[in-house]
Amino acid sequence: MFRYALRRLFGIVPTFLAVVAAAFFLMRAAPGGPFDEERALPAEIEANLQAAYGLDQPLAVQFARYLGGLLRGDLGPSFRMKDFSVAELIGRGLPVTFSIGAAALLLALALGIPLGLVAGLRQNGWVDHTVMGVALAGIAIPGFVVAPVLALVFGLQLGWLPVAGWQAGSPAHMVLPVVTLALPYVAYLARLTRGSLLEVLQSPFIRTARAKGLAPAVILRRHALRPTLLPVVSFLGPAAAGLLTGSLVVEQVFGLPGVGRYFVQGAINRDYTLVMGMVVFYASLILLFNLLVDLAYGWLDPRIRHD
Description:
Blueprint: H1 2-29, H2 43-52, H3 59-71, H4 86-121, H5 126-140, H6 143-157, H7 172-201, H8 204-211, H9 216-228, H10 230-244, H11 248-253, H12 260-269, H13 272-300
Helix pairs in contact: 1-13, 4-5, 4-7, 4-10, 4-13, 5-7, 6-7, 7-9, 7-10, 8-9, 10-13, 12-13
C-alpha cells in the first residue's frame, strides 16, 4: 500500500504541471490584460507596470518564474488588489468557504447514502419512487434557483434565518448556504448508492449469503455495504473538492466572503496570478482527494490489492 501511494503521488506531479501549464497559457491567450482600463494608461506607465510584474518577458520565461515561485510556495502578488498577495486572499476567504463546504459535505453524506440504501432495499416501491423523484428534482433544479427561493421563504417571509452576510460561529448564517450547496449532492449520492446497491445485491456472493439463511440486515452490513460504497467514494473525490472550494452561486446569493468571488473577480479583471492561484488550489484538492479515493478502495473491497 505504501509503495502504491508513492507511485500515485509521483504520478500526480505530471498531471498537476499539465493543469498549471494549460491555465497559464490560456490566461495569456485571452484578450485583454491586467492593466487594461476604460481609460488607456500612458504608454510609459503601462510599460513600467509590465516590467514590474515581469509581463514584458517571453512567455516561457514567465512560466519558468511562476513554477519557481510555486516550488517555494509563493503564488505571487495580485495584479489588481495591490495590497494583497494571492495566498493572503485565499487565506481570507478559505475559512468561510471551508466551513460551508465541510458542513454541506457532511449533510450530503448523512442524507444521501441512507436514502439511497432505503430506496435500493425497497426497489420499485413507493419509498423508492419518492426518493428517486426527489433526487431527480434536486439534480434538475439549479442552485441559482434554489438559493433565492430558500432565502425568500425562510429569510424574508418567515424571518427564521438571515438571508445574507456572514458571522463567524453563527449557525443561523450557515443553514441556508449549506442546504443549498448540499441538495444536489444529496441527490447524486442517493442515486449512486441505490444503483450500486441493486447491482451488488445481484452478485453471486450475496446469493450465497442468502442461501445460508443470513438475515437481510446482516447481509447488508457484512457483505453488501462496502462494495456498494465504491462508486460513491469515486464520486466523493471531485465532489469534496468542489464543496470545499465553494460555490460561486451560493457565495454570491448569500453574500459570503469566500474564495469563489476572487476567482470571478480575477477572471473579469484578467488578474493572472489570482486566477492561477485559484486553479492551483482547486487542482491540488482534486488530485489529493482522488489519491485518497484510490487508497480507500483497498479497504472497501478486499478483492482490490495495491501492490
